[in-house]
Design goal:
Length: about 300
């Protein structure tokens, strides 16, 4: 892989992918709508080309994809826009990849897996999503599979890390940085997965760099499942955070959803805070090698440091 396009380069995982590709000597086109943010993130990097455009406009994506080997799809849309924008974006991307003879690497979440009772979910687990957003993500995968384009589907749990602002854990960390009372979404006693974005990016770029990894799905788990209580302990002991933390429950999300479109769409995904999907990384470790696993302590510190630098 000599040249790559990252769609959604101004987001959390997009930022980590651009950084990892750049660190490996790959020429990168960093694509997103916000030109100012792209410049603030990448203006001093000689191998990174900034391209301000709309992922729903085929002409712009086609121009940005000129000469690339792999297109990384890390585009995020507001929940309330998923049903209209995600299918259109995927169809646009497939057409562009065919024209440019490029491969597609899709950053995916865990929604398509739906409810599962297994302790760890492998790539061959049956996908029967019961939520609207899970069905949309599954449809995106199916679009890739039925088109004659080499693809990677990479499932990751909830993200956190530098520049990862539209995430559940960021909801907590944003007030920790300001030394204000913070919110934590979900049950404090349920162990869930949060993956450090740079770990996910390292694993995904490694997969994208190989020839025998395509036309498959891959799970990239976090360092390990962690409870809210353990996260709060890290904030208290290692960062000296002393303010109160309010628990945002399902009922609170439902109430807020009566007034806010995003919260209304979030209600159906709250089952994951009580019935988390835990990913198995066995396939990756057997076929590729050791998974990147930044400890939560180190990952949270690095995230907080990045946030402090941006204040």
């Amino acid at each position: 892989m000599e040249k790559a396009l990252v769609l959604g380069a101004s987001g959390g995982i997009g930022y980590a992918l651009v950084r990892e590709l750049n660190n490996r000597g790959v020429n990168v086109v960093a694509f997103a709508r916000g030109k100012e943010k792209l410049h603030s993130l990448y203006q001093h990097e000689s191998r990174i080309t900034i391209f301000s455009g709309d992922a729903l406009v085929e002409k712009e994506v086609l121009e940005a994809a000129n000469g690339v080997d792999v297109i990384f799809h890390a585009v995020s849309f507001p929940y309330q826009d998923w049903d209209k924008k995600h299918p259109l974006c995927m169809e646009t991307l497939v057409r562009v990849a065919k024209i440019q003879q490029a491969k597609i690497a899709l950053v995916d979440n865990i929604y398509a897996y739906g409810r599962h009772t297994k302790l760890e979910i492998s790539e061959d687990a049956k996908k029967e999503p019961h939520t609207k957003k899970g069905k949309i993500r599954l449809a995106m995968e199916q679009t890739l599979k039925r088109n004659n384009v080499p693809y990677l589907i990479v499932h990751m749990p909830d993200l956190y890390g530098p520049n990862a602002e539209s995430t559940i854990l960021h909801e907590t960390l944003k007030n920790v940085v300001q030394n204000k009372s913070a919110n934590f979404v979900g049950d404090l006693k349920v162990a869930r997965e949060f993956i450090f974005t740079f770990d996910g990016a390292k694993a995904m770029v490694e997969l994208a760099s190989r020839k025998d990894t395509y036309n498959q799905s891959w799970n990239i788990p976090s360092a390990h499942p962690i409870t809210g209580e353990e996260i709060i302990e890290i904030l208290r002991k290692e960062l000296g955070y002393k303010k109160s933390i309010r628990i945002v429950s399902n009922k609170m999300i439902f109430f807020l959803g009566m007034f806010q479109p995003f919260m209304r769409e979030m209600v159906e995904m709250m089952y994951l805070t009580k019935e988390p999907v835990i990913l198995s990384g066995k396939k990756y470790e057997e076929k590729i090698g050791t998974l990147p696993r930044t400890t939560y302590s180190d990952g949270i510190k690095k995230t907080i440091n990045w946030m402090n630098e941006k204040v």
